[in-house]
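If I may wish for something, please sit down with the protein I am sending here and say whether C-alpha cells and residues agree:
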Amino acid sequence: MALSRHTKISKFLSFALRHHPEKFGLQPDTGGWVDVAALLHACKSHGMALLPEELKTIVEQNDKKRFSLSADCTLIRANQGHTIAVTSACSRKRRQLCCITVQPSGFCHQS
C-alpha cells in the first residue's frame, strides 16, 4: 500500500527533527526547536517541498501528536523519541504551543 503524502512528510520530519537534523543543515536548540523557515528549506532541498500551511496541518492532524509549533509558528520540534540530546527545559515563550487555525490572510493565528 502506498503511503499518503502526509505520512511521508511526517516520517521525513521525524527523521530530520528527532534523529539527524545535521544531515539537513538544521541546528536545533537545546529543547529540540528548529526554525520553521530552515525546515521548509531543508524539505525542499531534499525533494519534500511543502507550504507552511501544509506543515501546520500535518502538525495539527498527526494522530500521535509527534510535533509542536511555537506560539508564533516560527519554531517546530518533535515531541518525543529523540536520539539527539534534547532537554525538556525550554524557554517559556517556546513552550506556549499553538492553538491555531488557518486564516486566509496568514499562516498562524492564535486562539
Remarks:
- The longest strand covers residues 75-78.
- The chain has four helices and three strands.
- The radius of gyration is 13 Å.
